[in-house]
């Protein structure tokens, strides 16, 4: 039988797989093994099939069987940015090796792998050698395969890793439904990053959103990732560290700073759901074969860790789910959900812009493998002399706005489809009903630009505009200033009652609050219902005991 190879392998890493190659590989693998099954879960914006490859033993190819067999469900998403193709190639090759060799014998009994090798098929097929072209002067791009790679955005122009909260891309909506059906214990998101000059092969990260609220899960996630990094180093000789860039570019003493805590990013979104999340970012400036190799090594060691510690993975995610439910069932006004991490500033024209700073806790130090300072300043890779730098690790976020979890929200009917897209349960009032609610009066309304959220996509074969050239803004956000007030109000039939005692309860809080930095209001889905001086159309249901009218 002919050897089953990815397009990258078959061309000696001169080319990357088109979506047709991915589909053909998936079908060929499923024809050769009983350990893999293709699952179609929708269509891309341009009508291409969205495909997952489920890999497990004991015929475990459904969410129900995975739960019955008490397997850890691991979902892997690759090629969300279709110029970052290493995850796509590595997921396919590793799926083959796990099923057609002995590599997966001790893993698949404990795991059910749900692999999405090409999440952005339309962007993937817009191949050009000039996409993500290396430009060290701007610290962007990568060492490309000669045949080129796809685009950062989808064929319709959406950045899928900024779309998790607003779900404007059909690809996002398809994956959200798949995620809700499988409800994976672990989610792995494969990327390739440019940025600051260092000497790691790959950087990794996890959710930083609401760390105090999810403290046990975040601690588990951090220990696990450091453990896997050590395994990758020992078994595969690749060096890895937490994702980041120099706080002041070119200054290796300034600090190591992670990415913004906005849940439009997938890792922070899934962190609000109480699940284990992993962000993998192989390094743009190493060559393409090495990037694929380090991505494969990390995926394999993550699978091994999940299988070896399966009971711990199941226990921590179950406990976190119970805590989310408890916050809705017995609201605690002292347990605050951070809903905004932005620091507002004004540009030279007076326009509203936001920064999302991370802070370094005392004693949290990053040891960065890099090069001499002259090489870093000159943006030379590789640098002349290896050197390790110690610096503050900026990975702690402090919210600028936070709220408690109410027992429920009262929401206009217009948001029903958007709530369903996130798997958020609600019921409709069948008759007018009075509630004591905390409402918000709108004091001010402004607009701000959404960077790197969407773009005007060039015709197939032409290169996309690099971020350093500041592509034209195409998406904006509504920013409200509000003041709270409590009252008894009557709500009409058809109003949606959204309880927070559900698995997406914390996510619901983030989506529905008016001053959230990534909610429905921010994404302009309520603009027609908002008037300065009037009440915001979403209300918090109050559960409180009687308040004495005077002190005795």
From TrEMBL:
<feature type="domain" description="Peptidase M14">
    <location>
        <begin position="12"/>
        <end position="306"/>
    </location>
</feature>
<protein>
    <recommendedName>
        <fullName>Peptidase M14 domain-containing protein</fullName>
    </recommendedName>
</protein>
<dbReference type="InterPro" id="IPR000834">
    <property type="entry name" value="Peptidase_M14"/>
</dbReference>
<dbReference type="GO" id="GO:0004181">
    <property type="term" value="F:metallocarboxypeptidase activity"/>
</dbReference>
<dbReference type="GO" id="GO:0005615">
    <property type="term" value="C:extracellular space"/>
</dbReference>
<dbReference type="GO" id="GO:0008270">
    <property type="term" value="F:zinc ion binding"/>
</dbReference>
<dbReference type="Pfam" id="PF00246">
    <property type="entry name" value="Peptidase_M14"/>
</dbReference>
<feature type="active site" description="Proton donor/acceptor">
    <location>
        <position position="281"/>
    </location>
</feature>
<dbReference type="GO" id="GO:0006508">
    <property type="term" value="P:proteolysis"/>
</dbReference>
<comment type="similarity">
    <text>Belongs to the peptidase M14 family.</text>
</comment>
């Amino acid at each position: 039988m002919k050897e089953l190879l990815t397009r990258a392998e078959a061309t000696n890493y001169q080319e990357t797989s088109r979506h047709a190659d991915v589909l053909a590989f998936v079908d060929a693998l499923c024809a050769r093994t009983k350990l893999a099954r293709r699952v179609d879960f929708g269509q891309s914006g341009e009508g291409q099939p969205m495909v997952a490859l489920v890999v497990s033993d004991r015929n475990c190819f459904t969410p129900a069987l995975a739960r019955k067999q008490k397997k850890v469900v691991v979902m892997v998403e690759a090629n969300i940015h279709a110029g970052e193709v290493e995850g796509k190639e590595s997921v396919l090759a590793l799926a083959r090796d796990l099923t057609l060799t002995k590599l997966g014998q001790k893993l698949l009994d404990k795991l059910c792998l749900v692999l999405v090798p090409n999440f952005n098929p339309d962007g993937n097929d817009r191949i050009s050698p000039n996409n993500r072209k290396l430009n060290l002067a701007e610290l962007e791009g990568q060492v490309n395969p000669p045949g080129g790679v796809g685009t950062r955005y989808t064929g319709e122009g959406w950045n899928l890793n900024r779309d998790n909260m607003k779900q404007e891309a059909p690809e996002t909506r398809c994956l959200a439904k798949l995620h809700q059906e499988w409800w994976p214990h672990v989610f792995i998101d494969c990327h390739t990053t440019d940025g600051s000059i260092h000497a790691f092969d790959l950087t990794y990260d996890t959710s930083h959103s609401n760390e105090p609220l999810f403290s046990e899960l975040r601690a588990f996630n951090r220990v696990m990732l450091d453990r896997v990094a050590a395994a990758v180093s020992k078994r595969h000789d690749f060096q890895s560290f937490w994702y980041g860039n120099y706080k002041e570019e070119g200054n290796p003493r300034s600090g190591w700073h992670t990415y913004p805590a906005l849940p439009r990013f997938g890792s922070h979104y899934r962190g609000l759901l109480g699940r284990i999340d992993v962000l993998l970012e192989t390094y743009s400036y190493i060559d393409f074969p090495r990037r694929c190799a380090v991505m494969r090594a990390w995926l394999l060691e993550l699978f091994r860790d999940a299988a070896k510690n399966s009971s711990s993975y199941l226990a921590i995610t179950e406990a976190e789910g119970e805590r989310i439910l408890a916050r809705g069932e017995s609201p605690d006004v002292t347990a605050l959900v951070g809903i905004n991490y932005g620091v507002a500033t004004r540009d030279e024209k007076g326009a509203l812009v936001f920064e999302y700073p991370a802070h370094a806790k005392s004693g949290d130090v990053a040891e960065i493998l890099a090069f001499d300072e002259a090489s870093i300043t000159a943006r030379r890779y590789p640098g002349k002399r290896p050197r390790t730098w110690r610096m503050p690790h900026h990975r702690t976020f402090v919210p600028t706005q936070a709220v408690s979890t109410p027992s429920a929200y009262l929401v206009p009917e217009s948001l029903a489809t958007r709530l369903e897209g996130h798997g958020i349960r609600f019921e409709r009032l069948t008759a007018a009903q009075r509630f004591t609610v905390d409402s918000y009066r709108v004091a001010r309304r402004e607009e701000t630009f959404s960077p790197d959220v969407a773009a005007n996509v060039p015709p197939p074969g032409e290169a996309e505009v690099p971020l350093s050239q500041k592509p034209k803004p195409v998406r904006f956000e509504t920013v409200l200033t509000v003041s709270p007030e409590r009252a008894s109000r009557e709500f009409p039939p058809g109003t949606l009652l959204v309880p927070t005692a559900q698995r997406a309860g914390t996510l619901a809080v983030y989506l529905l609050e008016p001053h959230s930095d990534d909610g429905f209001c921010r994404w302009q889905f309520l603009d027609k219902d908002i008037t300065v001086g009037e009440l915001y159309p979403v209300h918090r249901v109050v559960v409180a005991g009687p308040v004495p009218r005077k002190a005795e």
